[in-house]
Fold:
Amino acid sequence: MSSILQELETEIAGLKTAVTKSNVGTVREVGDGVAKIEGLSDVMLNEMIEFPGGLYGLALNLEETEVGTILLGEGDNVKEGDEVRTTGKLLQVPVGKGMLGRVVNALGEPLDGKGEIHAEDSYPVEKIAPGIITRKSVSVPVQTGIAAIDAMIPIGRGQRELIIGDRSTGKTTIAVDTIISQAQQNRAAAEGSLKDHKPLYCIYVAVGQKQSNIARTVSTLEKAGAMEYTTVIAASASDSATNQYLAPYSGCAMGEWFMDQGDDVLIVFDDLSKHAVAYRQVSLVLKRPSGREAYPGDVFYLHSRLLERSARLNEDNGGGSMTALPIIETQQGDVSAYIPTNVISITDGQIFLETDLFYQGIRPAISVGLSVSRVGSAAQTKAIKKVAGTLKLDLAQFREMQAFAQFGSDLDEKTKALIERGQRIVELFKQQQYSPLSLEVEVAILWAMQNGYFDEVPVDKVKETQKKLEEYLTTRKDVVLAKIRDEKALSDEINDELKSALDEFQSTHK
Amino acid sequence: MAKASKDAIRTARQMLQSCLVDGRLDEGRAKRWVQKISSAKPRGYLGILDTFLRMLRMEAAKHHAVVESAAELDAGVKETVTADLRAKYGSDLDAEFRVDSELLGGMRVRVGSDVWDGSVRGRLARLSDKF
Structure:
């Protein structure tokens, strides 16, 4: 009790003598979530401005006679002539493990009705990305649980991999599957069944989406038990453009805290096309000069400064990492539009999803030819690297040959074999949504494919056989799977065991 | 209010610059500018005049102090406050004294964008912010 009294006394004593100097201004114009303010001679860029009634704004335009601020809330009560003052602070959001399992808005305030958030710290929303000295090259994989991605377009911890495609081609599904897969691995590691696994926390930033979609994603994550390791930042279509513009940066700040603690984190920006549109709206209302497609001149910097904050830090700096999965929605498959080309050039590769493939039933509808990961096999475990080998090339050759094969049936044996193999690989890579595979199952399935165990199976039975094989391996050969899981490589011993297991499977499941 | 174009803002800024003599506003020059623009009516003259007026108001505010107190101050205190403010902001500063009972006690001084708040209301607000 006495310590509280002492504390209060010091606080009050400090106030008794202090005459504070503040810098004030007067609201000249307000509307569309933007206020123009006269005065504020000492204001700094991106400084928080306090409005009457506890509302805050962010100073974005510093002009000769006025300051353009965006309002971080409902500006209905702001009137012309209101006195506002600078705070000397940058916009900050709460960060920490207390954010996990929560759904928050762009300012980090809870939206899920689960009560107050106990944040460990607060981080500035805008921060300069880690420099060259503090970084390390990407080498640890993010096991997405999607076989096609893990085998052909591997993503590493600290990488930025763009997910791009038309509307409803399964972009969000890939991101959600990845989050679910991380939760499964984190849980397995916590239970002790997954060795040497560093937990990967997840942040899902929803920008400009329908509230119903966000609610659906949250419930999917909850059902899969992934919310425990995930924070959802929601700036829906009904939120102001300001909040939609700030949400990805807030998410990034929350992710940076994990990275600074030496932890690994995955952040999904769903999606940056809508983020660019929100920023265009803010910029136009602020009367900034517009450029191509009415986007402001700094729309590239908008995304580059955001995605540059993803990094893998070296051991001297904690060894944490932040992996980014930005999502971009294209119109009619046009990847050469303004925002898609910008983000493609910023990221370290892209997963391109095609509408045609989606409707052919190839889901995830990944276009192997256009998808690439610039980090490549550096971010693959030895086991996956060995079984994935030439898969991408095989599939690319298959697609080419498939087009030729349509013109005639006289094909040489080699081409026929290539097409047969290609068709089976395509079937194998089809995967149900929200059911990511574990590393050991992926490796075993791909090993079976590479070693010709699917060659005799009719194409339309591949999926069924794969399911049976998975069941057989997980129930009866879990020792081999455990070895793959622990060693993460294919030793001769594992190869032999896999061979005998698959021979047995083949003889019993004919 | 007429919408000021970039040209109007530039013209108004040049007009203001020409009205400043040693950093102080020459009222005569400002009046002459307004008369000249009103009679010549150049393109976008309303915008020019509006912007010029706004700039003049902001310039004048830099040399005008508004001193608010909870109760009427006696002449001695007023003189001391004015002298102190002039020492800080220049000898051409003029002080306006107002009574605002909502301050509860103490004084609040505004010069341009700077506010020196020593009022009881301000202290209470800061105290509530702290907790």
